[in-house]
């Protein structure tokens, strides 16, 4: 999808500094910033490289300070926020911004001339091409000052005595190396002056809003000067290796319809490296998380025809299974995985089922049955963090002091905001779903599935009696101990392929939960009538985490709601109605993305991660799976 913004929007800095763009490179690296041109997050930069793909990222080239001279006047084209000021204020000269394809583009109008700036990320490489083209009729003098750093992307950068460790100036190239990581800036045709020095106290206001350290210092290795006649251009390449050639700027064909736009966005989260194929949970700060990956996989991979990649992802996670559990986060070989999740393995079973429904492959099916048998064995005898089947009712219980094990996993210091110890409803819906998937798979392969069947029958027998609350007219959020809070977790259970929630009680609970929780941008995590409800997701991280699952609205839950509506009522038009605003969300926060969360209360500002995988994936999956709208990309080569 192509996004175009005009001067009226761009020159209103209060708006243009809030809207972000992002270009991923398919290995975990990316380029990112605001449409105003300023870097308002510690994660923003022209080159954020995956130095150890797909997850270890480093900001290397945050920005390039740029000036254009025409008619005896000099104009600052870049926009930088410092403590207490914005300088230069290049946003004032912006005529347009566009994104659509492998690049973003700004048009600057200065001194009667026009300069086009384009930035393209290199697919499969830790490299960025930046091209400045004189598209007017007036000659321009262009001065560029790359501002560099070597910082892990979650951190800040400060002036230091021995940075960089090495800097060399071969012809038409400047190479900066620090702690084993190289940044090479190719700049053919430039008049270079090695004027090294520091720029101090850049302020990243988005980090201030989150209560984090907002200050960065950056290093300038050189100044680059060009004289550009009409039609001439200056091209730079920033990369982690030397000699990388610039790439072409490729415009994408226009997309038609919300499903095609969502499919285009879904591609941004799929990462393929020599080590593994995976799904990034969100940009800019998330990596590949077990639960997020399994929830996102049907939308990101299966709905877009990438079935081979789906199998590769499932096999990779299965290789890290221990004690019948998937890790909470995929880690490198030199790191120890953590298994503090009660539901990632259960979502894993759901993803296996949907992958085999999309395309049956006997070998993969046999592997998957082994994984599910291992999960069943460990859950029956008891595994980590108190995750085990209660022999009295066949339901899954979980919980350990100070540990959050469900998707409502916010923690502030030692305070687990929503512990949900005992038997959560969506965990048990997913548990029964896993058992029925195992039974289905065993039967399909001609093997004995009785262990899955008998365990499922016992759990189903007690599920309704345990969770249904006839006075309240909805299902309890947890049992043993009981929590009657009205939350969306029962809707997650309702939307599963082998959901235990059926009949009149299911329809009644669906209606009540939908009426209390549905907003324009997702489902609230707690009904406004409940004690502890928080309608705003704002303030420092501690405040945001306290609101995260206490009323904040999550777009990804609309997928479960749409599935539940179709499954329990058959009303596809009602399901589609709750999804049809999603097209507008793609241009609200991060262009081409859907936010992680929104406020529970109007006017519902977006928050959290601007590009969240499961927000895109679940809306897309529901359109294709539940509503029946045809995929535009099922012909993708796998």
Briefly say what this structure is:
This protein has 638 residues and is of the alpha+beta class.
Explain the layout of strands and helices.
Blueprint: E1 3-6, H1 7-10, H2 13-16, E2 20-24, E3 30-34, E4 45-52, E5 56-61, E6 63-70, E7 73-76, E8 79-82, E9 85-89, E10 94-99, E11 103-110, E12 113-121, E13 127-134, E14 140-147, E15 151-152, E16 166-168, E17 173-178, E18 181-186, E19 191-193, E20 197-203, H3 205-209, E21 215-220, E22 223-228, E23 233-239, H4 258-266, E24 270-272, E25 277-279, E26 282-283, H5 290-300, H6 307-318, H7 344-358, H8 362-381, E27 388-389, E28 396-397, E29 411-412, E30 415-416, E31 423-424, H9 425-444, H10 450-467, E32 468-469, E33 474-475, E34 478-479, H11 489-494, H12 503-517, E35 518-519, E36 522-524, H13 541-547, E37 553-554, H14 557-569, H15 572-579, H16 582-585, E38 597-598, E39 606-607, E40 611-612, H17 613-627
Antiparallel strand pairs: 1-10, 2-3, 3-4, 4-5, 5-15, 6-7, 6-14, 8-9, 10-11, 11-12, 12-13, 13-23, 14-22, 16-17, 17-18, 18-23, 19-22, 20-21, 24-25, 26-40, 27-28, 29-30, 31-34, 32-33, 35-36, 36-37, 38-39
Helix pairs in contact: 4-17, 5-7, 5-17, 6-7, 7-8, 7-9, 8-9, 9-10, 12-14, 14-15, 14-17, 15-17
Helix content: 25-40%
**Strand neighbour order, sheet with most strands:** 1-10-11-12-13-23-18-17-16
Strand coverage percent: 25-35%
CATH topology of the largest domain: Glycosyltransferase
Number of domains: 2
Q: How many helical stretches?
A: 17
Report the mean per-residue pLDDT as an integer.
96
What is the overall silhouette?
Answer: elongated
Q: What is the CATH first-level class name of the largest domain?
A: Mainly Alpha
Please tell me the CATH architecture of the largest domain by its name: Alpha/alpha barrel
């Amino acid at each position: 999808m192509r996004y175009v913004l005009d001067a009226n929007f761009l020159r209103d800095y209060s708006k243009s500094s809030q809207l972000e763009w992002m270009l991923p490179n398919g290995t975990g690296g990316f380029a990112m910033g605001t449409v105003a041109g300023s870097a308002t997050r510690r994660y923003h930069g022209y080159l954020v490289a995956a130095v150890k793909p797909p997850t270890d990222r480093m900001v290397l080239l945050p920005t390039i300070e740029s000036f254009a001279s025409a008619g005896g006047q000099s104009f600052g084209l870049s926009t930088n926020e410092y403590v207490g000021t914005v300088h230069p204020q290049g946003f004032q000269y912006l005529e347009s911004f566009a994104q659509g394809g492998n690049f973003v583009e700004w048009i600057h109008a200065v001194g009667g001339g026009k300069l086009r700036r384009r930035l393209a990320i290199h697919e499969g490489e830790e490299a960025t091409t930046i091209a400045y083209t004189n598209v007017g009729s007036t000659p321009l003098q262009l001065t560029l000052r790359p501002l560099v750093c070597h910082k892990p992307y979650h951190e800040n950068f400060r002036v230091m005595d021995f940075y960089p460790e090495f800097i060399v100036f071969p012809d038409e190239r400047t190479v900066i190396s620090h702690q084993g990581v190289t940044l090479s800036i190719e700049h053919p045709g430039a008049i270079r002056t090695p004027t090294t020095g520091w720029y101090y106290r850049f302020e990243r206001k988005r980090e201030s809003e989150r209560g984090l350290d907002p200050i960065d210092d950056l290093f300038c290795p050189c100044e680059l000067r060009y004289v550009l006649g009409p039609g001439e251009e200056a091209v730079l390449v920033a990369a982690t290796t030397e000699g990388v050639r610039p790439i072409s700027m490729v415009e994408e064909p226009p997309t038609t319809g919300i499903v095609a736009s969502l499919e285009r966005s879904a591609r941004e989260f799929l990462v393929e490296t020599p080590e593994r194929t995976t799904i990034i949970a969100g940009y800019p700060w998330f990596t590949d998380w077990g639960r997020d990956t399994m929830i996102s996989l049907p939308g990101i991979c299966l709905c877009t025809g990438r079935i081979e990649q789906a199998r590769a992802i499932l096999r990779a996670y299965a290789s890290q299974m221990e004690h019948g559990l998937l890790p909470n986060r995929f880690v490198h070989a030199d790191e120890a995985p953590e298994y503090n999740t009660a539901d990632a393995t259960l979502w894993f079973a759901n993803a296996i089922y949907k992958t085999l429904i999309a395309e049956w492959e006997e070998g993969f099916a046999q592997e998957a049955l082994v994984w599910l048998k291992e999960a069943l064995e460990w859950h029956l005898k008891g595994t980590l963090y108190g995750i085990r089947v209660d022999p009295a009712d066949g339901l899954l219980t979980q919980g350990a002091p100070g540990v959050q094990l469900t998707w409502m996993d916010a923690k502030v210091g030692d305070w687990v905001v929503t512990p949900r110890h005992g038997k959560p409803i969506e965990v048990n819906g997913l548990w029964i779903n896993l058992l029925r998937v195992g039974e289905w798979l065993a039967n399909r392969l001609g093997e004995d599935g009785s262990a899955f069947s008998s365990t499922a029958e016992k759990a189903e027998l007690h599920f309704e009696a345990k969770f249904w609350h006839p006075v309240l007219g909805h299902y309890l959020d947890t049992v043993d101990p009981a929590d009657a809070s009205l939350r969306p977790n029962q809707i997650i259970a309702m939307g599963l392929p082998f959901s235990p929630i059926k009949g009149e009680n299911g329809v009644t609970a669906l209606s009540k939960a939908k009426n209390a929780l549905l907003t324009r941008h997702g489902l609230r995590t707690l009904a406004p009538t409940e004690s502890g409800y928080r309608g705003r997701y704002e303030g420092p991280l501690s405040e945001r985490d306290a609101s995260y699952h206490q009323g904040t609205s999550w777009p990804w839950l609309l997928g479960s709601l749409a599935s539940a509506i179709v499954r329990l009522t058959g009303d596809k038009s009602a399901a589609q109605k709750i999804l049809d605003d999603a097209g507008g969300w793609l241009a609200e926060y991060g262009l081409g993305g859907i936010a992680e969360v929104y406020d529970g209360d109007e006017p519902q500002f977006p928050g959290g991660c601007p590009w969240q995988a499961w927000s895109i994936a679940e809306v897309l999956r529901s359109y294709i799976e539940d509503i029946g709208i045809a995929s535009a990309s099922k012909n993708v080569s796998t």
